[in-house]
Amino acid sequence: MRSNSGRSIFSPGSSLIPILAVLALAFIGAAGSCGNASNPRLSEIPSRMLWAWERPEDLRFIDPDTTGVAFLAQTITLENGDVVLRGRRQPLQVPNGAYVMAVTRVETSKGRGERAEMNDEQLRRTADLIRRTVQLPNVRSVQVDFDAVVSERDFYRKLLETLRKDLPAEMPLSITSLASWCVGDRWFGELPVDEVVPMAFEMGTDEHKIRSFLKDGNDWTSPVCRESYGLLAGDDLLDSVDDSRRIYFFKRSAWGPQDADKLAL
């Protein structure tokens, strides 16, 4: 168990834009790594990462030598020709020296008369907003979470190409992936990203099939997906997957000290 000292990245009522101005609060510390000889950008990301979604989170109990934090920094909604930003509103505290990854959730409005145009201006503005998250305190990498449907994939590919050019050369660019993309739908095989995290939970109609596939000892058919897993905390899939890979854990409620022993953080 670590000491309770740490830093607050977000405080109640804060949003993304004000936080960007507080660069003096930034701090960087050493963290344990999973190690990846083939991609040095990934070498410092810990082997265990906790997703901290939009709720108050006090993660000062984690050991920063073994565990990092991937926190939802903002949600961007593409609506008609607009880009609607919703910054994080909930407090987040992490221990000193923790490895921190800023996650941007991208959504598109698909309501009647509200379909996103996916135009060049939306692409530019979205890329710029994601790029700004690298200026948040302690952020050392970025992750994009976008469940792009077929008609949105060309936009998504261009967005990632733009981000890779705009981000610091040494900074990792990670994306989440629907599990179905990793067992046959290989549309993203050539994307300019360092890591693809297949989310092996909340898989909809594919849930039973993919869980059985993994529990039978099978691996993702798309090689780009074989760097890490996204798992639900407490899921027995952990017993079936290659735990030498980086694992991102998601929880539907706030994390607490009791989770440290359960997940060997």
Could you please describe the fold and organization of this structure?
This protein is an alpha/beta fold and 265 residues long. 17% of the residues lie in helices and 26% in strands. Strands 2, 4, 5, 7, 8, 9, 10, 11 and 12 form a nine-stranded mixed β-sheet that branches. Strand 4 and strand 5 form a beta hairpin. The longest helix has 14 residues. It is globular and about 50 Å long. About 10% of the residues have low confidence.
How do you describe this structure in short?
The chain is α/β, with parallel strands linked by helices and 265 residues long.
Q: Provide the helix percentage.
A: 10-25%
Q: How many domains is the backbone divided into?
A: 1
The CATH top-level class label:
Alpha Beta
What would you report as the Rg, rounded to the nearest angstrom?
Answer: 18 Å
Looking at the structure, what is the overall shape?
globular
Mean pLDDT score, rounded?
87
Number of helices: 5
| Straight-line N-to-C gap | 9 Å
Structural class given helices, strands, pairing? alpha/beta
Notable characteristics:
265 residues, alpha/beta, TIM Barrel, nine-stranded mixed sheet, three-stranded mixed sheet, 12 strands
Secondary structure blueprint with pairings:
Elements: E1 7-10, H1 16-20, E2 48-52, E3 57-58, E4 67-79, E5 82-87, E6 92-94, E7 100-108, H2 120-132, E8 139-145, H3 153-166, E9 173-178, E10 195-199, H4 207-215, E11 228-232, E12 246-250, H5 258-262
Helix pairs in contact: 2-3
